[in-house]
């Protein structure tokens, strides 16, 4: 049994903490939202009055927070995890954040003598609940070896991607591929239909031909073709447009920070920004097809 502190018990963190409890670990948690904290307590998490109190006695600290500024705030400052967690505690940030913030927090943790990992996930709320997340992990080999057992409880696929911040790099690169790909699929299905090619026939051909890809096989944006597609459920997510938008913006910040050319990533970001601004943020990301075809 390991003493784990879990900070950020929202849609993802709540079920992840629940799985750690179910595996026999002593989990103490904190969240700014009282309802999230009490829901976690019902799942066996010991509720703490603050992040500092939650980590005071921890062997492992896991955070699952919205964005870079929250992660910097929770790790830094007088009452931050860095300083408040016992010496020797392993720090793991599972939030999806910008590479720059991830590296800044790694550096501060390292300077204070802690081992740290950035370990963003894919798999969504269903993956968090089912313990089937994919973890993309950045940090030292020693930190990864210490953390692996906990990733194995919360996830199914765990990849040590590289050094500090490289887990976040993997996440933004992967989701940039997904965003660009979904727009390409949407264009092809819209064009095909206007040319008299039925979506079913295009799917039958392309899903077995060189145009095939994971997004088409699982999330094709036309109803009636693939069981798992959000298009069958009026684009109820799934993976929300606002999440895709966040990840694409992170990809562009990362690209700018190293001078990488990502012209299609930039275009995908602009299209998803328009889609969000038109009120579609809570729909599945595959609803981007509506930008192209209002029918
Ligand atoms: P969420 O908003 O449901 O949960 C975040 C939680 O952090 C909230 O409960 C909030 O109250 C808490 N929080 C914020 N600041 C805090 C602080 N200072 N101290 C303590 N608690 C604080 O978000 P989520 O959907 O659980 O996502 C969490 C992270 O996981 C995000 O970075 C997101 O991009 C990433 N992610 C989400 C999904 C998904 O499908 N929801 C999938 C993959 C990755």
In words, what does this structure look like?
- This protein is α/β, with parallel strands linked by helices.
- The chain has 2 domains: 3-163, Rossmann fold (3-Layer(aba) Sandwich); 169-293, N-(1-d-carboxylethyl)-l-norvaline Dehydrogenase, domain 2.
- Helices cover 52% and strands 14% of the residues.
- It is built from 14 helices and 9 strands.
- Strands 1, 2, 3, 4, 5, 6, 7, 8 and 9 form a 9-stranded mixed sheet that branches.
- Helix 6 links the parallel strand 5 (90-93) and strand 6.
- It binds nicotinamide-adenine-dinucleotide.
- Nicotinamide-adenine-dinucleotide binds at residues 7-13, 30-33, 36, 51, 64-66, 70, 73-74, 95-96, 121-122, 124-125, 243, 246.
Q: Which descriptors would you attach to this protein?
A:
single chain, 295 residues, alpha/beta, Rossmann fold, N-(1-d-carboxylethyl)-l-norvaline Dehydrogenase, domain 2, 2 domains, 9-stranded mixed beta sheet, 14 helices, 52% helix, binds nicotinamide-adenine-dinucleotide
CATH superfamily caption of the largest domain? NAD(P)-binding Rossmann-like Domain
Name the assembly state.
single chain
Under the CATH scheme, the architecture of the largest domain is 3-Layer(aba) Sandwich
Largest sheet: 9 strands, mixed
**Roughly how many Å is the radius of gyration?**
20 Å
- CATH topology (level 3) name of the largest domain: Rossmann fold
Query: What is the CATH first-level class name of the largest domain?
Result: Alpha Beta
**Average pLDDT metric:** 97
Strand content: 5-15%
**In total, how many domains does the architecture comprise?**
2
Q: Structural class given helices, strands, pairing?
A: alpha/beta
> What form results from the Cα inertia axes?
elongated
- Straight-line distance between termini: 55 Å
Q: With helices defined by DSSP (H or I, 4 residues minimum), what is the helix count?
A: 14
Order of helices and strands: EHEHEHEHHEHEEHEHEHHHHHH
Q: Could you say which small molecules are bound to this protein? A: nicotinamide-adenine-dinucleotide
In total, the number of strands is: 9
């Amino acid at each position: 049994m390991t003493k784990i502190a879990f900070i950020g018990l929202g849609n993802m963190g709540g079920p992840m903490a629940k799985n750690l409890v179910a595996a026999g670990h002593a989990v103490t948690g904190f969240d700014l939202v009282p309802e999230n904290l009490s829901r976690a307590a019902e799942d066996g998490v010991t509720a703490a009055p603050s992040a500092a109190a939650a980590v005071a006695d921890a062997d492992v600290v896991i955070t699952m927070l919205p964005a870079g500024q929250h992660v910097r705030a929770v790790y830094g400052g007088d009452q931050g995890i860095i300083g408040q967690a016992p010496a020797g505690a392993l720090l793991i940030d599972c939030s999806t954040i910008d590479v720059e913030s991830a590296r800044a927090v790694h550096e501060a943790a390292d300077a204070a003598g802690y081992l740290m990992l950035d370990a963003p996930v894919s798999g969504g709320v269903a993956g968090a609940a089912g313990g089937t997340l994919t973890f993309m992990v950045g940090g030292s080999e020693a930190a990864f070896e210490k953390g692996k057992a906990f990733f194995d409880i919360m996830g199914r696929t765990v990849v040590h991607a590289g050094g500090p911040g490289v887990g976040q790099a993997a996440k933004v690169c992967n989701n940039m591929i997904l965003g660009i790909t979904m727009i390409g699929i949407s264009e092809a299905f819209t064009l095909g239909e206007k040319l008299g090619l039925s979506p079913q026939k295009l799917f039958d051909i392309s899903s077995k031909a060189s145009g095939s890809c994971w997004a088409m096989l699982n999330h094709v944006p036309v109803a009636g073709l693939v069981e798992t597609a959000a298009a069958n459920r009026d684009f109820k997510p799934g993976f929300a447009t606002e999440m895709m938008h966040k990840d694409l913006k992170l990809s562009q910040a990362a690209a700018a920070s190293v001078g990488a050319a990502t012209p299609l990533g930039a275009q995908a970001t602009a299209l998803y920004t328009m889609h969000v601004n038109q009120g579609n943020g809570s729909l599945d990301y595959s609803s981007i097809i509506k930008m192209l075809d209002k029918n």
